Every structure is written in structure tokens, then in C-alpha cells.
Amino acid sequence: MVYAPGHQQRLLQPRRRSARERWVVGVGGLLTAMVVAVTLFSLTSGEPRNGKGCLGFTYAMVMGGEQLHACGARARRLCARPPHLGGLAHDFAVRLREACQATQLPYDTARS
């Protein structure tokens, strides 16, 4: 088969993308970058951690989950005199006791 003159040169040249193709590739790249950023943010910004004199945990309450973050004097006061919230806040009492033990703050077991 005989090809037209310059056929091989046209096949070897990179194809020029249209403005629409460049726009679609750009939007696709931007969406991919946003998904990666949101994923990294959600993986690295989770529940507060216990340590260095700070309490941080999530606990269940009647209307849903809540977070507690306390440092310094407030953390020592919570561990020394844990609040009595009734039977519905059992998860809070358990997690507070665990957090106080993890940060090595004295916990009043008589009040829990």
C-alpha cells in the first residue's frame, strides 16, 4: 500500500489538543487535587489526643457525639472531681477515666 507523502511525519508529531480538551484535563486535575486534599485533611485531623497534660476524647451523649478537650488546670480539675452526669453519660465517665489514666493525672474513683 502506498501512503501519501508526509504521512509518517504527521503520525510522529505530537497531536495538538483543543481548548476544550485542555479545559477538561485542567478541571479533572483540579478535582483530583481537591479530593486528595480533603482525604489528607480528614485522615490527619481526627479526634484530639491525650498527652502533655491535656485530655482529648469523643464521647456519646443523648443527642449524638461530643468532644472534650481540656488542658492544664481544667484537665486536672476534671480528673480530680469528675462530674456526675447520671446514667446516660456512662460513656463520658469511662472515657474520662481512660484519658486521665493515659495522661497520668490523678482520677477520683470515688465519684465515678
Written account of the structure:
The radius of gyration is 30 Å and the shape is rod-shaped. The chain has helices spanning about 5-10, 20-45, 75-80, 90-100; strands spanning about 55-60, 65-70. It has a two-stranded antiparallel ribbon. It is about 45% helix and about 15% strand. It is an alpha+beta fold. It is built from four helices and two strands, in the order ααββαα. The mean pLDDT is about 85. It folds into two domains: about 5-45; about 55-100. A hairpin with a 2-residue loop joins strand 1 and strand 2.
Write a compact overview of the structure shown.
It is built from 4 helices and 2 strands. The protein is of the alpha+beta class and 112 residues long. The N and C termini lie far apart (91 Å).
| Fraction of helical residues | 40-55%
The major beta sheet can be summarized as: 2 strands, antiparallel
Low-confidence segments, given as residue ranges, are: none
| Strand portion | 5-15%
Give the CA-CA distance, first to last residue: 91 Å
